[in-house]
Write a structure and sequence with these properties.
Blueprint (H helix, E strand, L loop, with lengths): L7 E5 L3 H13 L3 E6 L2 H11 L3 E5 L1 E2 L2 E2 L1 H9 L4 E5 L15 E3 L4 H13 L2
Parallel strand pairs: 1-2, 1-3, 3-6, 6-7
Antiparallel strand pairs: 4-5
Amino acid sequence: MDRLDGCRVLVAEDETLVAMLLEDVLADAGATVLGPAATVQHALDLAMTERPDIAVLDFNLSGESCLRVADALAAAGVPFVIATGYGGDIPLPQHAAVESLQKPYDPGVLITTLSRIMAHR
């Protein structure tokens, strides 16, 4: 089973039940959860003050695109995945290489994806 022991994961998710599930799944995999942040500003604050190792970004945070958070993480060299309930490609051309997960996604797939990304850092 994939593990995230000691990994600090920023969770930016505005749906309370999804955020709670993410917290549980990540903690069970050994990660320390930063957040969850339900707004872009909260996610930016956490990204700059808490120094995550990796992040899971909901594409739409309380009606605002996660673009500013994605840009800040990329500038800081922090990898991230984008979770979305929207079909098709994520409209963030500057982050086209970033992996995305279509909601609802299997929590095991999330852990495997994050573990793989962390292993290649």
